[in-house]
């Protein structure tokens, strides 16, 4: 996810600037930005689909308090990414 955000940021900052800003180049930049936005959502949905069954299958009643807090921290980090 970090690399994905770095690529997105690079494109938002302009990427490789060219001498002539043609209509095609402007269209290409907006197209790439749109694809990167949609791709991030797809990656996030994929992560959710793979992690969700594991979290739902956990029997948290046997977890110690510290372990439970650790699981919540990991889920929180996934949500904030």
TrEMBL record:
GO terms for cellular component: cytosol; EARP complex. InterPro entries: VPS50. One of its GO terms (biological process) is endocytic recycling. One of its GO terms (molecular function) is SNARE binding. PANTHER family: SYNDETIN. This is Syndetin. It comes from Geodia barretti.
